[in-house]
Amino acid sequence: MSAPHATPEPAAERLHFIEERVQADVAQGLHGGRVHTRFPPEPNGYLHLGHAKSICLNFSLTQRFGGRCNLRFDDTNPTTESVEYVESIQRDVKWLGFEWNELYFASGFFESIYEFAEELVRKGLAYVCDLDAEAMRELRGTLTAPGKPSPFRGRSVDENLDLLRRMRAGEFAEGARTLRAKIDMASPNMNMRDPVLYRILHADHHRTGSAWRIYPTYDYAHPLCDALEGITHSICTLEFENHRPLYDWVRDNCSTPHKPEQIEFARLNVTYTVLSKRKLLRLVNEKHVSGWDDPRLPTLSGLRRRGYTPSALRTFCERIGVAKFNSTIDVVQLENALRDDLNKTAPRAMAVLRPLRLVIENFPEGEVDELEAVNNPEDPAAGSRKVPFSKVLYIERDDFRVDAPKDFFRLAPGKEVRLRYAYFVTAKSFTLDPATGEVSEVVCTYDPATRGGNAPDGRKVKGTIHWVSAAHAVNAPVRLYDHLFAAEFPEEVPEGQDFLVNLNPKSLEVLPNAQLEPSLAQLAPGKSVQFERHGYFVADALDSRPGAPVFNRSVALRDSWAKIEKKPANAKPASGRK
Ligand code: ATP
Ligand code: MG
Questions:
Q1: Architecture in CATH for domain 110-215
Q2: Is position 506 annotated as part of the catalytic site?
Q3: What number of other Cβ atoms are within 10 A of residue 17's Cβ?
Q4: How far apart are the CA of 429 and the centre of ligand 2, in A?
Q5: Which of 51, 104, 279 should be mutated for ligand 1, with most atoms under 8 A from CB?
Q6: Confidence label for 559 from pLDDT (cuts 50, 70 and 90)
Q7: Does residue 118 contact residue 164 with C-beta atoms inside 8 Å?
């Protein structure tokens, strides 16, 4: 059971437990004082936020202690792996801002891994077993009952060697035999009850083709790859803690050149999402999302398309720290890391998402006023731009109310507000659409003396709203995203139910006719911008065309407009649980 909402570690210089351990190892001269880590993805899906945590951890250790970090593809299951995944993983690691030292594939070590198997057989530490998976399971015992030895456990070394070679040569049917370690069928650790080292698989591999008819298991191949690459600290998630005795067994019984150590840390879980390639693959295959790069997914390609920056993700990983116990991080922490990053770097612009026409009665027809707007108040070097102002504007539908309550500080009949960077306006009248009963146009007057946003007579207004000149506006689709899952812990479902029941049917809303200030037409795909009063948006890298951008909302502003408004009691907060 997960403990919700771990509090972030203070960002101070305190070392986390893995750093402490590595520091101590270096001080003692263990592994010759070297630090060499690896990030070992299986190329069976796209990388997600959990992998980002592992990447940041492995690479930052070597940055801190002056070591090396490899990228190793753990490609030992040919049926689920592909070149597409291999390529996307390399792209994503680089995008996150890391350069590996060496690039390896477990399959590149297949020959050595096999030779170690013959060594184990010769030492009497491995045997060929003819039991099928079910029979093997039956003999394995349970947590409370010891297992029983396989009837093939006593085969001679010669017979085992002969059978292993014939397994390799492809003489036997898939699943007919396995190579098993001979350890201890009574071990309290189930992983030590003669685990499988090799299985027969008549499947072609994306790198080795048809060269192999047997493939090593993760538990057998992983320590050997670590040893062959000279890895000193092999970092993995907590599920592998009770595999460590097997890791050590393989390492110590094979005459490897070097003896790495496995260290486990808590995997990352985040509220309102799932971090498992298997589950993400289902969402993609069953078309609950548009692909691996759907902006609602926690994949790195989805987050990138959503407008997440590498530095925001690195900051997030740093802030949540590295722990020994599993917990779930509030998604708000992820969103805050992005806000903090984009607040400093994203230019500001005005965009009206749900447009309402505002006609300024006393503004000269055909005239255009160019108003000065600050590009980024957090960054004086970003300068300013000119925004065209004219007689007909668009304002946000929500910024006008016919019957406004007392604390509604935006536009209403008879009320005066400031138009951002422009003038004070006072609403005079409005028209209703006879078909819908909704307001279709508001007529107002402006005070020319308030140009720039201040009244010379010192008169104050309480509200400032944004606007776009109708004649100059760029029409663009804007996609608003919400959490992909409506449940805080989507994987916690009643017995017999599927995590898909927790999908959020309202995770995507498309506003087809947002009106944007003209400077946004030229925003390069993949670039971020703050739509004032709304949040951070990114020009979609795939669907934008020159002069015709499509925007994705990356994250709403912290105290977004909608939240200040009194929401109906059943409304869901925009960004997770507080
Ligand atoms: P998944 O369950 O999503 O398939 P995995 O562990 O099987 O994840 P791998 O490709 O084998 O995926 O993982 C590569 C590395 O990333 C491993 O070292 C693994 O421990 C780490 N990793 C995977 N998921 C997480 C996570 N949620 N938090 C932290 N590290 C993770
Ligand atoms: Mg895995």
A1: Alpha-Beta Complex (3.90)
A2: no
A3: 13
A4: 64
A5: 51
A6: low
A7: yes
Query: Buried b vs exposed e over 112-139: b needs ≥16 C-beta within 10 Å?
Result: ebbebbbebbeeebbbbbebeeeebeeb
The 10s digit of each residue's pLDDT in 449-480 is 999 999 999 999 999 999 999 999 999 999 99
The distance of Cα 242 from the centroid of its chain, to the nearest Å, equals 27
Could you please state the CATH topology (level 3) that the domain comprising 348-566 is classified under: Ribosomal Protein L25; Chain P (2.40.240)
User: Would you say the CB of residue 447 lies under 6 angstroms from ligand 1?
Assistant: no
- Angstrom distance (rounded) from CA 342 to CA 537: 10
CA atoms in the 13 A half-sphere facing the CB of 482:
17
277 is catalytic: yes
For residues 97 and 93, give the distance between their C-alpha atoms in angstroms, rounded to a whole number: 7
Cβ–ligand 1 distance for 275 under 6 Å, the answer yes
Residue spans in the chain of domains classed CATH 2.40.240.10: 348-566
What's the pLDDT score for residue 14?
87
For the Cβ of 393 lying below 6 angstroms from any atom of ligand 1, the answer is no
3-state secondary structure 63-125: HHHCCEEEEEECCCCHHHCCHHHHHHHHHHHHHCCCCCCCEEEHHHHHHHHHHHHHHHHHCCC
* Span 412-429, pLDDT tens digits: 999 999 999 999 999 999
CA of 51 to the centre of ligand 1 (A): 6
CATH of 13-101+266-345, one of 3.30.420.40, 3.40.50.620, 3.30.365.10, 3.40.30.10: 3.40.50.620
Q: Which amino acid is at 514?
A: A
Tell whether ligand 1 has an atom less than 6 A from the beta carbon of residue 298. Answer: no
Residue 232's region, left for phi above 0, alpha for psi from -120 to 50, else beta, is alpha
pLDDT at 576: 33
Three-state DSSP at 231 gives coil
Which pLDDT belongs to residue 573?
A: 40
Q: What stretch(es) of the chain map to CATH 3.40.50.620? A: 13-101+266-345
> Among 86, 158, 172, which residue's Cα sits nearest to residue 127?
158
CA-atom Rg of the chain in angstroms? 30
Between the CA of residue 343 and those of 2, 337, 558, what are the distances in Å? 32, 10, 11
Residues of the chain with CATH 3.90.800.10: 110-215
